[in-house]
Amino acid sequence: MTERKPRILIIDDDVLVRETVKIALIQADFEAATLEEPSGAEEEIRRSKPDLILLDIYMPDLDGLDLCRRLKADPATARIPVVILTGSRETIDVISGIQAGAFEYLAKPVDSELLIQKIRTVLKIESPRGKA
Questions:
Q1: What is the mean pLDDT of residues 55-80?
Q2: Number of domains comprising the chain
Q3: What pTM does this model have?
């Protein structure tokens, strides 16, 4: 019996970021799915039950911080770790992200090996030998 790959959901309005991160995750033996915008994300998250969510802050309609707060307030999604992956390095955004319930905050651009290692740390997955 094969073990299920950890599922990561990437929510970002930038197609280049979504696809680049998705490719890096797949190469690191994760299952990756993407959403372009946070509207409708809650329903998709309840349906697909990802193991971790990578979430941008600044997006149209609903920003990532509001979505994170809503996910953490919902018993069905509260335990899913959220990692903020955004372009802002501003201290106020980092603090706001953690206060909203994010487990980790990473600023773009982020090295893909660092991102993979952070995800493995959050999910308590050991790195395969010879890989980050």
A1: 92
A2: 1
A3: 0.91
